[in-house]
Specification:
- With 139 residues, the protein is of the alpha+beta class.
- It has one domain: Beta Barrel (Cathepsin D, subunit A, domain 1), CATH 2.40.70.
- It has 3 helices and 9 strands, in the order E-H-E-E-H-E-E-E-E-H-E-E.
- Strand 5 (72-85) and strand 6 form a beta hairpin.
Length: 139
């Protein structure tokens, strides 16, 4: 199986809350579409500093992560990132990678949105068993 990229929309969830409270106009919400590497080996959503700056996402903590080469690095973590793909959405935290490093779409947001990888088509898809809404297992 080769590498898979998907067009993911990232939105500042804090801005959406301001809209709900009538403190901001919907046209002012910071959002962007990003081509992300779909990476089931990464647990979390990983954005880069360029994306964080454009969306103005606040840093809430620092966490250590082990990279593919085995090294352990410390990264900022931002909160309240709304993630959208097709008819699915979730809100999560994201680790912030340095500079313009390639962003990663990890396993946790994929699971939460009930998305699957089609290996032959090399494509991220809405789970065909639940095409109209995300369905989770709680057992």
């Amino acid at each position: 199986m080769g590498l898979i990229w998907a067009e993911i929309e990232l939105i500042n969830g804090g801005d959406l809350e301001m809209v709900r409270r009538n403190l901001m106009d919907i046209d002012e919400v910071k959002k962007m579409k990003v081509s992300m590497l779909v990476d089931t080996g990464a647990y979390n959503l990983c954005i880069n500093e360029v994306i964080q700056e454009q969306l103005q996402l606040p840093v809430v903590e620092k966490r250590k992560a082990q990279l593919a080469n085995g090294s352990i690095e410390e990264y900022d973590v931002v909160d309240n990132v709304q993630v959208r793909f097709k008819n699915r959405a979730t809100t999560c935290r994201a680790m912030v990678l340095p500079g313009d490093t390639e962003p990663l779409f990890g396993a946790i947001p994929m699971e939460d949105m009930d998305l699957i990888i089609h290996p032959l088509r090399q494509e991220l898809l809405v789970n065909p068993e639940h095409p109209y809404f995300a369905q989770m297992s709680v057992k």
